[in-house]
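Try it yourself: sequence plus zinc ion, in.
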Amino acid sequence: MSTHASTTSMDQSEEGLNREDEQEMERRSHRLKLPEDGYEWKKYGQKFIKNIGKFRSYFKCQRENCMAKKRAEWSSRSDGELGEIRIVYEGVHSHEQHLSSSSSASNSLGTATSSSNANQYNLLTQVLGGDHHHHHQSTSTPRHPHA
DNA sequence: AGAGTTTGACCAGTC
DNA sequence: GGACTGGTCAAACTC
Ligand SMILES: [Zn+2]
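Structure, out:
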């Protein structure tokens, strides 16, 4: 038996998508898109804050000379329905934002830079356990200027 | 191939 | 001193 017959069975060398792969891909295709703010961010962490029952993602500006950070927070919904996403900016940018609203979608070559993959992140849960004490700290609650 | 993303583990601060 | 939380890093994975 054995005798690796040339391409064995589950060889995903180049073209061989298994159901699991497709499932994974499909799962991955469901990502949360954050509103573009004109800056490029790199996600470096995500955690679930059980205290508030919300997810929190951590982003950092991609500029080498920029240390601005961004924090995205949203409620956890098992229905797949996300509440409102609150974005908190920390630090200041030492550069002007380059990405802008209009003038995007322009590619001489069809490099498919489509804005489809602008800001897509996967939602997952991190288990946090233990709720005993309560802490009171000025939870900055930014209010909107106006509804 | 590379950049960007994902996820668990680690660290620090707090009580 | 231990326990818990929030924040960050790094390896692994994806595209
Ligand atoms: Zn910046």
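One thing you can check immediately is this: The two ends of chain A are 70 Å apart (CA to CA).
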